[in-house]
């Protein structure tokens, strides 16, 4: 199936991106536009998924935007790739668990391109790496399904400021360690958008 791919060079406002995403969901549902893959970066923003709890927001002064994706609190900002998609499960398998598994596999395959071994966790959604004898999270996943149109997506830490996570309990997991390609010693990731696109289309096209 054809998936339209968009790469945004300039950072995209979070609220604006949600408007575009919601419009695309309707367009895909009605068959007016094809499925969608959108790779971008946001300015610093904290978002709360539908399962977030107030006690997971450690710094109450943070400006948090509530969103309709699944998951809990997370952070987006410069140096982090946000990968949004709109996929029509009416024309694919109507199986959300399989969809999540494919997304996880996609991220694992992306990281392999940089010789980073990673894994999923059956208890905690997202992708993890073993670093300094600790399990650290490098990618977060948040998905919503509306009339079998799956959207939102995942975020992958490239070179973002990891201290930005200090004000929240990321994804609701206490004492979580967050990492990035930069922290893992990967300095050259300028082709990351091409790698993301290739791996995603290999799995979903």
How much helix, percentage-wise, in residues?
10-25%
Number of domains: 1
Order of helices and strands: EHEEEEEHEEEEEH
Quantity of strands, as a count: 11
CATH homologous superfamily placement = Bira Bifunctional Protein, Domain 2
**Second CATH tier, the architecture:** 2-Layer Sandwich
SS field, number of helical segments: 3
CATH topology-level name: BirA Bifunctional Protein, domain 2
- Approximately what portion of the residues adopt beta-strand conformation? 25-35%
CATH first level: Alpha Beta
Uncertain ranges: none
User: pLDDT average, as an integer?
Assistant: 95
The rounded Rg comes to: 16 Å
The geometry reads as globular
> Would you tell me the structural class of the helices and strands?
alpha/beta
Distance between the termini: 5 Å
How many strands, what sense, and barrel or not for the largest sheet? Answer: 8 strands, mixed
Describe this structure in words.
The chain has 205 residues and is of the alpha/beta class. It has helices at residues 14-29, 96-112, 192-204; strands at residues 3-7, 35-40, 45-48, 64-66, 73-76, 80-88, 119-120, 127-131, 134-146, 149-157, 177-178. The protein is globular. The chain has a single domain, classed as Bira Bifunctional Protein, Domain 2 (BirA Bifunctional Protein, domain 2, 2-Layer Sandwich).
